[in-house]
Amino acid sequence: MTRGPTMLLGGLLLAGLAGLAAAHDVLDLNPLEWAITNKNGSVSLASSLPAYPVELLRASGAIGDPQYRFGELETRWVALDTWQFETTFDASAGLLARKQVLLVLNGVDTFANVTLNGRKVADLDNFHREWLLPVKDLLVPGANTLTITILPAITTAIELKRSHPYHIPTVTQLGNVDAYNFARKPAYDFGWDWGMGLGASGIWGGASLLAFDAAVLRGVHLHQTFSGDTFTLHAEAHLLVPPGGDAGAAWFLLPELGVAQRRKLELDGAAGEAYVRHDIAVKADAVDVWWPVGLGSQTLYNLTVTYASWSSLLDFFDKTEPVALVDGGGAAADPAADTASPDAAAASPPSDADAAAAAGGAAPGDPSARRRLAGATSLPGKLGTPASGLGAAADVPGEFTSSVSRRVGFRVVEVVRKPLAEAVDELLGPKGGWHSANTVGTGTRSCFWGGSCGQWGWVNASRWEFISDPTHPQTRYYTGYEDFLGTKTSLPGGENPWWNDALGLWTGYNGHPDLAKDVEGESFFFRVNGHPLYAKGANVIPPSLLMINATQQVINATLYNALDAKMNMVRVWGGGWYMPDSFYDYCDEHGLLVWQETMFACAPYPRDTAFIANVRAEVEQQVRRISAHPSVVLWGGNNEVEVSLDWYRGTQTNQPLYTSDYNALFIDTIGDIMKELVPSIMYLDSSPTNGLVSSEPFIKRWANAQDPRYGDVHFYDYYSNCLDTKTYPMAKFVSEHGWPSYPTWPTYRDATAPPDWAVGSPGMEFRQRHWNKTAEMTNQYGMHFKLPPSWAAPTTGEAFRLWKMYHYLNQVQQALCFDTGFGYWRRLRSEPQALTMGILYWQLNDVWPGASWSGIDSAWRWKPMQYVVKRQFEDFVVQSYETNGRLEVFVVSDMPLPTTALIRVSIVHLSGSTCPAAAPGGGAANTTAAPGAAAAANASSAGADADDADAGDAPVAWSASKRVAVPANNAGIVFNSSVAELFALAPDCTYATCYVDVTAEADAVGPAAAAGATKLRSAAQSFAVEYKTLRLSKPAITISDVATVDATTVRFTVSTAGEASLLTYWDSDLLGHFTANFLNLAPCTSVVVEFKSDQGPVTPAQVVGSLTIQDLFDAQADLYTPSAAFPASK
Predict the structure, then answer these.
(1) In the list 86, 217, 349, 1071, which could disulfide-bond 1095, CB 3.0-4.6 Å?
(2) What is the rounded CA–CA span in Å between residue 122 and residue 480?
(3) Which residues make Cβ contacts (< 8 Å) with residue 1079, sequence separation at least 6?
């Protein structure tokens, strides 16, 4: 019987490993008892590794929780002390006899000196590095004592900063500690404007001894390229080599693809390690490509690299049946490389579906086409019996030393940066932006109703404008920006009259259509397997204050919450950690793309020789560890270091010096590493940045790094009206944007005490780390909501009532700001001057129960903002916004195929409605599992004319619907009306007593349809006046139909009676989140909600008993109904 090479190799490897002694020994020192003492010996602890003294002291009750109230300050002494870790182990004769013995240290935080039996081993200074330290000559037979003394990072970093030849500034916020940029330790550990500064010392990884006589395979680095019809896996095997060197062979196996390749190695022992490069070619039609979530499957293949030492083993393989010989390439390798790689696609006939797809029968968005690269004409891979094989196996003479496995996802990822005109052709097609089934430029469009109507269009390939109905005067409505008469001289090309300094944004060429040809800019978007992708995601910070608490459960919960909010990308921020392997494994398995940064943030850094060498070792290790993951699609050099050069007086007045430092670190050092190790992955030296003028040679586009015409943008504005789209830049890619809030009430409550539940209290302000943030947020609340004359109160009860109002407005304001900004940037995907193709908001998760920009607090409870994010990140979204006196309704579709949608626009009474007697849930006329906001009760049937809407005291004063075309991967206006004319259709309504409700129901297509969905629903509401001007009445909210879905899920229905409940959200004392929340509930409406527990099984009674429901009226009831505590506001 003939056996294929994969079967043979697998059998031989297993046989060899089964009965042979290992050629290396590993002595794990983590389980041993380590004595942990502080500098003066007053504190003595005992623990295995990993361990942090602050956590051991907290767990034992010796100190309080640093996160409770003022515990950060009360426990700071732990971070300022020196901690000694010491253990004793026995060194066996066998271990001592090995040619090489290395002490492997990982996760030592941060500045430490290491001794073995009282003799110095090394000084350590990098949280992010693994250390391989030769100790053979320091070991003794029997008992050995290993001591790791960790110095306080805070004082050590400050001293390094003081001793530096010139001043390098550090960004600090309230309560933060200086000099993080002088420590290769997570920057946030010194405190940030969203978190406390623990500054802890400890060991988050571990210690072991690795002893060996033959070379040991330590790791495998991968990156991939694609050309023509072939993927090439560029593998680099890292081997530790004993003194005197070694000879052997490395096997590269992809069993699912029938690939088995061998190369002979001669390894020099002088350097102590070797990197062996080997390329593996794989035909694209032999694999199912890896897709981001929502676009296809995440197919992963197993690559195993095995190193064997004995020459007799090589002789054995040389005696087997001959196979084709190929030169695998790469340094430090013998010229001969043996390969067995059959045609994996030849043996199995294609199915009818495969044949149809190959013939072009499947549309680009059809699920049957999602397995292949865009434009590929080859059949999907069918693995069959190899055409040839090796002889039958005999007994294995030899000894396998080591093996490493990696999972491979084949995909092609590009960051597309090209002139806007070219990008428009790719993203929007020949019709330009905002196009619909109607021909752009004809000036006609059928109306929903009698009155002024029209459409937006990219007219004559020159500008975006409103085209009114030909029976009405031609009216133009531009993008909403005011002309700016000043200049911006720091942009490429000199003066530019279309940059608005006051708004910090590019205003286009309003009023100057003849100057359109002078507009500069280029696209910035991801193309995956040939398909443009709208990136929807968030920035991820470390999931806990201490890495030892970042368990698999914590990692999974963090990323699950991202997926549940419809994200397809996360950005690993440069002020934290490189995430553990399990983080990237989860992203690979679930299709979450990763924008990965090296760990530098928000300040200049040194560039002395020792610092650069330390960084080089760190980045090389991390790039080799992380880059093989198919989810990792971009490497960034830092977060906001480039833009920070404009923040400090020193950098402003001596730019040549600090720019030279920047270039040495992020371009000459890290940039060269990326070019060497991952040339196929995009490298951005900073974020935000304008990108490059040229990649070869590397020429940065210096100037204003926040210029929205190029690259990515970080946008924060706490002074302008966040509910006005004119506040937001027309950026190509928004890699940071946010608005702060406190945690949900149950999370805040559990970390504080009653004295902290008052506006402006020391406890409240202690949890606010951004300078002047309370004043900035309160100013924004006043723009939109009723506020009391004063936040001070004479009694504890009244102070708490005011605090609850403040907290409610705090949560709601964050959500509304996000809704406005996200909605704008989502629809700008189809505005040709913008082409916004990504939002990564700041920030997904939290590390403490204090004020931050997160959507999910430190207990994993979702804030109202996170529900807005989920709604705006759906593949089909309807948006309703009032601007310039007009109501505009958009649909945004990320679906890969065109579809149709039924759009209904209604004018709804805020109060005074009479619900039908037979209504479920206490009088609600309409029940819906609303995806983002509950729809108004529709009195008329789908598609009915406005005249069909019920009158009288029904909730709906006017309604009309129409089916519209929804282009694929696009956004467009489907309804545009003067607000005044629209409200004239409901004579009994005023701007203060009614609002506009829009619902949309689209036919599911593409992956959504393949997943079983038939309809995609969305809803939005618009108010013609500020919330503080609305005439509200107290709503009657009921909960009914409570039932168990499964052990951790409970379903219930929330219903309203005759009054609307606006900005309504519910908290739970339980840990978990809801499927729907933060809704505008129309009168006589019900919404079905599920609670998903994060704390294990829950009962319906527990869930209902844990709920607290708040809405705008109840949160401000005393301002609508004056009481003694709250005089009527003017």
Answers:
(1) 1071
(2) 62
(3) 930, 932, 933, 934, 1064, 1065, 1087
Query: How are beta strands 956-966 and 994-1003 bridged, if at all?
Result: unpaired
Cα 105 to Cα 208: distance, rounded to the nearest angstrom: 7
Is residue 484 within 8 Å of 500, Cβ to Cβ? Answer: yes
What is the dihedral angle through the alpha carbons of 780, 783, 789, 791, rounded to the nearest 10 degrees? -20
pLDDT tens for each residue of 955-1013: 999 999 988 888 889 998 888 888 998 999 999 999 999 999 999 999 999 888 888 99
Mean pLDDT, the chain, rounded, equals 82
Helices (H), 689-839: 745-750, 762-766, 773-784, 796-827
List beta partners, residue 320: none
Q: What is the C-alpha separation between 410 and 148, in angstroms, rounded?
A: 43
Give the pLDDT confidence score for residue 172 in this predicted structure: 86
Percent of all residues in the chain with a pLDDT value above 90, rounded to a whole number? 68
Which residue bears the tokens 């504190």? 43
For residue 310, the model assigns a pLDDT of: 62
pLDDT in tens, 771-822: 888 988 999 999 999 999 999 999 999 999 999 999 999 999 999 999 999 9
Whole-angstrom distance, CA of residue 880 vs CA of residue 887: 7
Contact 641, 687 (CB under 8 A): no
CA distance 1060 to 1062: 6
Q: Which letter does DSSP use for residue 62 in this model?
A: S
Separation of alpha carbons 926 and 314, rounded Å: 75
Q: Tally the C-alpha atoms within 13 A of residue 649's C-alpha that lie toward its C-beta.
A: 0
Instruction: Report in angstroms the alpha-carbon separations of 1098 from 1072, 1087, 1092.
Output: 10, 21, 9
C-beta of residue 124 within 8 angstroms of C-beta of residue 51: no
CB 1068 within 8 A of CB 1106: yes
> Strands 886-893 and 1037-1046: what pairing?
unpaired
Say whether pLDDT at 624 is over 90: yes
Question: Minimum mean pLDDT among 254-268, 390-404, 533-547, 561-575: which range?
Answer: 390-404
| Residue found under tokens 């005044």 | 980
pLDDT tops 50 at residue 476: no
Encoded amino acid at 449, one letter = W
Cα(330)–Cα(347) distance, integer angstroms: 32
At residue 696, what are phi and psi to the nearest 5 degrees? -145, 100
Contact 864, 781 (CB under 8 A): no
Please state the separation of Cα 14 from the chain's center in Å: 40
Which band of pLDDT confidence, cut at 50, 70 and 90, is reported for residue 673? very high
* Bridge partners, 965 (sequence order): 900
pLDDT band at 392 (very low <50, low <70, confident <90, very high): very low
Amino acid at 1042: V
Decide if 538 contacts 566 (C-beta within 8 A).
no
Alpha helices in 519-646 (DSSP H): 552-564, 581-590, 609-626, 641-644
**How far apart are the C-alpha atoms of 354 and 568, rounded to whole Å?**
28
For the segment 152-178, the average pLDDT, to the nearest whole number, is: 94
Contact 323, 337 (CB under 8 A): no
24-28 β-sheet, strand order: 24-28, 202-212, 100-109, 130-134
Helix ranges (H only) for 936-1057 are 979-984, 1006-1010
DSSP state of 654: -
706 closest CA partner among 692, 689, 693, 686: 689
In residues, how long is the chain?
Answer: 1130
Q: Is 844 exposed, middle or buried (0-12, 13-18, 19+ CB in 10 A)?
A: buried
Contact by Cβ (8 Å): 176, 769: yes
CB 821 within 8 A of CB 718: no
Query: b or e along 989-1003 (b: 16 or more beta carbons within 10 Å of the residue's beta carbon)?
Result: bebebbbbbbbbbbb
3-class DSSP string for 132-201: EEECHHHCCCEEEEEEEEECCHHHHHHHHHHHCCCCCCCCCCCCCCCCHHHCECCHHHHCECCECCCCCC
Per-residue pLDDT, 494: 30
